[in-house]
Amino acid sequence: MDKAKAVFCWSGGKDSSYCLHRVLKEQVFEVKCLLTTVNDEFKRISMHGVREELLDIQAEAIGIPLLKVRVKEGTNEEYEEQMETAFLKAKSEGIDNVIFGDIFLEDLRVYRERNLAKVGMKGIFPLWKMDTTTLLNDFISRQFKTVICCTNDGYLGEEWAGREIDKSFIEQLPVGVDPCGENGEFHTFVHDAPVFSRPIDVRMGEVVERDGFVFADVIPE
Questions:
Q1: What is the pTM of this model?
Q2: Residue pLDDT tens, the chain, 221 long
Q3: What domains are there in the chain, each with its CATH number?
Q4: How far is CA 201 from CA 71, 163, 182, 187, in A?
């Protein structure tokens, strides 16, 4: 029987990579493309602040076509318009499903499903309600490699930016910070994963603070 076709919403971070690994192993969906929102002014992944060049390298290592949704103004209206255009294009190609790596934010899931309903598509959430400590421990044990590229300084200070996620990271997290950063405490960039054909060599560049967030510039070697 043919697999159901899907778009995979790819952020470049740990939840996306773990979710994609799971989806590809389960073989229920055929992932036709990765979809990522890119800030067209700064040429970086929206929210995460990761260079577009590194996004391209990830997609090449995964071997799945990459569709970029470009935003300039950064408003919700612009984002929704651009996403709707991308989803309608996918829909016209016989794709009915959109896969997300969200874990437990109910309002975000409702928002995504409402927008998808406008174009007659369905949201798929393979990690939904997973325990985030269990998820992150499994992530580490499966040899995923990731660094923190952005923190919300209301939760984690500058010293966390650029840090590799490992067992000690979990042990040292402050009380109230979700192990997967599901509440927006931090974002990550994955530089090696079972879904990659090869690791991505990176180094950490400048750390800057902007609008309540701390960004560590991940630089390709």
A1: 0.96
A2: 689 999 999 999 999 999 999 999 999 999 999 999 999 999 999 989 999 999 999 999 999 999 999 999 889 999 999 999 999 999 999 999 999 999 999 999 999 999 999 999 999 999 999 999 999 999 999 999 999 999 999 999 999 999 999 999 999 999 999 999 999 999 999 999 999 999 999 999 999 999 999 999 999 99
A3: 4-124 (3.40.50.620), 132-220 (no CATH)
A4: 28, 15, 26, 19
